[in-house]
Amino acid sequence: MGKRIGILMVFLLLAWLDAGAKEKDAAPLYKTAEAKHFTQVEGVELTPAFGDYFYAELRAELKKSKMAADVIGEGEAVDDADAAQSIVVVGTITEYKKGNVVTSSLIGFGVGARSLKMDADVQRRSDKKNLCTMHIHVKIEPRWDEKTMAKFAAQQVVKDMKKDLKPQAQ
Amino acid sequence: MFFPNQLVRWCSSALLVCALSALSPADEPKPKPENTISVHLAEPVAPQKFAAPVKFWISDVTDRSGNPQPMLVYKERGGIFLDRQPTVIVREALEQSLKAANLLAADATSADLTIRIYLFHFGLAEGSMLDFFGKVEFSAMVKNAKTGDSQEVKATGTSIAKSAIKKKNLQKNVEEDVEESLQDAVRNFLRGQQLKDAVKELTKNSDVAPAPAESPKQ
Questions:
Q1: Which pLDDT does position A101 carry in this prediction?
Q2: CA of B159: which chain A residue's CA is closest?
Q3: What is the mean pLDDT of chain A?
């Protein structure tokens, strides 16, 4: 019995290592990726610093994901030859709720949480064709900083992008 | 022997001294060799190819950040300082990249376009508690000395680096973060569509010959 469990564990470990190696060796799906500053709809009360920080986090997450060979800055020129294999991430912050510490402490379970909703699109650079649309909703403790929320939102955007774009590329 | 009024006077003096010492900037960080970092470009940034061969000259770099201590990049834990003024670092980074691509003029008179930089932010910006947010932001006035026409080009570079507990790692992470954001800003400027459009607009009526070799990038 113990031997069987041991063999099973070795198999699982090998499968995990193999999956990790495949992930590492995978070639980038796109030549370049550009993240734009997300716009805000009227009524969203977030500081301009939030926009900058979210943009930086999104770029950092895109680099980490290795979806593109090069993550370029906003407004950088791209070779015509690479435009068809390049993507642009644009989006709009549609809703922001500050949350309520008292409600969150008394009730909990997400009630009174600080929340952020955004719509993001991934477009192909050459023809502006929409490759995927994401609706992101991030909830955090109301005591936490809005910048922490930006970090989680950027992670969620890239995670959803990966999920939507990988099957398209295959 | 102490009288009550003397005791009150003594206590109030002691309290005043304590309050003053708490208010005085006793723990204000001071630059020392061990808390000073040197920020450089890891390698020159290759600029985009322009339709016409142009030579640039960096005429001036002005600090417009309004930061009273531009060399102090991180205030906590004894502080982290830059070894040079941010204006000097930005100028050096731009000149290094332009020179490597043979786009830097020998002097102002031989340059086709002069660049005047206004630096708005250099160093760390307010980020989350989990990491460092490096940001370099500047605006450049690109001017054709012959015609007097000028165009504004904006550039921003950002970088996110992990925070650290040990002071040594913290300093290393801050240095890498600022370097990366500088590299990003220089790249954003030299490879930006704005600079491309500005160069095209400013050189269209001048006697700068079009580039004979190599097809221009986008």
A1: 83
A2: A56
A3: 86
CB atoms B160 and A57 under 8 Å: yes
For residues A35 and A68, is the Cβ–Cβ distance under 8 A?
A: no
The model carries a pTM of 0.81
SS3 B43: coil
Best residue in A32, A47, A52, A145 for a mutation probing chain B (most B CBs within 10 Å):
A52
**Sign of the Cα pseudo-torsion (A128, A74, B47, B42, in order):** negative
* Residue ranges of chain B whose pLDDT lies below 70: 1-5, 7-8, 11-26, 205-218
Of the candidates B133, B187, B193, the beta carbon closest to that of A53 is on B133
Length of chain B in residues, anyone? 218
Which chain B residue is nearest to residue A52, measuring alpha carbons? B158
What is d(CA A138, CA B128) in angstroms, rounded to the nearest whole number? 16
Q: Is domain A28-164 given the CATH code 3.40.50.10610 in the classification? A: yes
Structure tokens at A28: 């980038």
Q: How far apart are CA A125 and CA A89, in angstroms?
A: 10
Residue B80 CA to chain centroid, in angstroms?
Answer: 15
Model confidence pLDDT, tens digit, residues B145-191 = 888 899 999 999 999 988 888 888 889 999 999 999 999 999 999 99
ipTM: 0.78
B162 touches B26 (CB < 8 A): no
| Contact between chains at A77 and B218 (C-beta distance less than 8 A) | yes
Beta carbons of B191 and A53 less than 8 Å apart: no
Strands (E), chain A: 30-35, 39-40, 68-72, 86-97, 114-124, 130-140
Instruction: Report how far residue A162's alpha carbon sits from residue B60's, in angstroms, rounded to the nearest whole number.
Output: 44
How far is it, in rounded angstroms, from Cα B89 to Cα B82?
9
When pLDDT is averaged across residues A10-25 and rounded to a whole number, the result is 62
